[in-house]
Amino acid sequence: MPLKPIPLSTLKYSTHHIPSHSLLPNTTTHPLYIYHRSFPPGTSPSAIESHLSTMGVVTPVWRYTMYRQTHYHSTSHELLCIYQGSAKLCFGGEENPKRVETVVGEGDVVVVPAGLGHRLLEDLTGDEKDGFMMVGSYPKGCSWDMCYGKEGEEEKARKAGEVKWFDRDPVYGDEGPVLGTGGEEIKGSTL
């Protein structure tokens, strides 16, 4: 039986606009999206990958945790589907006074727009074998790069804001938060 995310009518999500800081472009044109409990806890990475492939918006590429060094992608947005554990993540650069620090866990989906600095602050699972893990995906036709907000990356930082946004929601299809339809946005700071 194919995996189905929770109904869009019951999805709760949050968005965060994070200003540029130092050499991190951050949310230049689109916010960070966090879909809270989009998939049922215990959903396997294979089931998530199959669902994403069926939607046809992104290509699942890896299963891993998040790097502990702040980095961003200038050529692609990134979709992160948490399938194991929980973690505290930082978006926008740890020195940025307007950064977002938030805890995510099983079933959550994070849409990281091109240019947004992100890193793992702490794996809250406490077990390396069964620690925090995600399925990482990128929009079809995009190749991703690694940038670190360092000198010499200024042109890449500028181009991050030009990456084409989604025509369909990667989890829900023709409707969904990244398209401005469906779900309930919850407000509030996570710092």
From TrEMBL:
It comes from the Eukaryota. Residues 68-118 form the Cupin type-1 domain. SUPFAM superfamilies: RmlC-like cupins. CDD domains: cupin_YjlB-like (cd02219). This is Cupin type-1 domain-containing protein. It comes from Delitschia confertaspora ATCC 74209.
